[in-house]
From TrEMBL:
GO molecular-function terms, A-Z: hydrolase activity
InterPro entries per UniProt: AB_hydrolase_1 (IPR000073), AB_hydrolase_fold (IPR029058), AB_hydrolase_sf (IPR050266)
AB hydrolase-1 domain location: 21-236
Keyword match Hydrolase: yes
Gene Ontology CC entries for this record: membrane
Protein name: Alpha/beta-hydrolase
Highest taxon, organism lineage: Eukaryota
């Protein structure tokens, strides 16, 4: 039986024995991971980066819950087994929602990159504001000026991710996910899975600071876009728990 999977970008050889799944965030696309994906492919991984519902010209349904985005990715797990799963920002919440579906008998490295695990109502409103307005109209040159560690390719993919997505994504996803709270999902992590959370600001991980089964890594001098600025850190942390397996 053939399993149909949603649209995605792919790096590496289809014959690779190791696989990684990378999940982008809000108003972004699969190519937000182009640097991480290229590095993993060079290390022998087949890397798959899906485009979430409502992003990269994918039509959404009427349900914008994080769990719905996660369930939409289940065909990937039916079609193959993954050694590494990485999610950025909202994609991190999607990955946490996938923990309950991961195999319980094999090691998997899960990395969540700068995801807001818990937000108050006020913080949700602020996040909506930061994802609309000026952000929707910035040019490649604007992003390069604001983010000196970005390459031109990073800025191009950022602008393209916004333009081929839906302008109402921030409002839709925030309205359908109240409260914005994913801390409880950590308990779904299988014992054989390792969970690492990368953050630019220690305040973003305060809610999970005392979680026993989570490795927290603060990335100095990074912004929200750690995968652009320090892709080597994302790859290093992803490989840390599975090297030598």
């Amino acid at each position: 039986m053939t399993t149909t999977v949603p649209s995605a970008s792919q790096w590496g050889s289809p014959n690779a024995k190791k696989r990684a799944l990378l999940v982008h965030g809000m108003n972004s696309s699969s190519h937000t991971f182009h640097r991480v994906a290229s590095t993993l492919a060079a290390k022998g991984y087949l890397v798959i980066a899906p485009n979430l519902l409502g992003h990269a010209s994918r039509m959404p349904g009427s349900d914008f819950r994080i769990q719905t985005l996660a369930d939409d990715l289940l065909p990937y797990f039916e079609a193959a087994e993954y050694d590494i799963v990485i999610g950025h920002s909202m994609g991190g919440a999607v990955v946490l929602s996938l923990l309950k579906y991961l195999p319980k008998t094999r090691p998997i490295s899960v990395v969540v990159v700068d995801c807001a695990v818990e937000l108050t109502a006020e913080q949700q409103r602020e996040k909506i504001s930061s994802n609309i307005g000026d952000n929707m109209n910035r040019t490649v040159e604007d992003y390069m000026s604001l983010n000196p560690l970005w390459t031109r390719e990073d800025a191009i993919w950022r602008v393209l991710g916004i333009q081929i997505g839906r302008a109402t994504n921030p409002l839709d996803h925030m309205d359908d996910n109240v409260p914005w709270s994913w801390l409880h999902l950590i308990s779904d992590k299988p014992a054989t899975t390792t969970l690492t959370v990368l953050a630019a600001d220690p305040r973003k991980v305060e809610a999970i600071a005392h979680s026993k089964d989570v490795r927290i890594v603060i990335v100095p001098n990074a912004s929200h876009w750690i995968q652009y600025e320090f892709p080597e850190v994302v790859v290093e942390e992803a490989l840390r728990s599975i090297e030598g397996q």
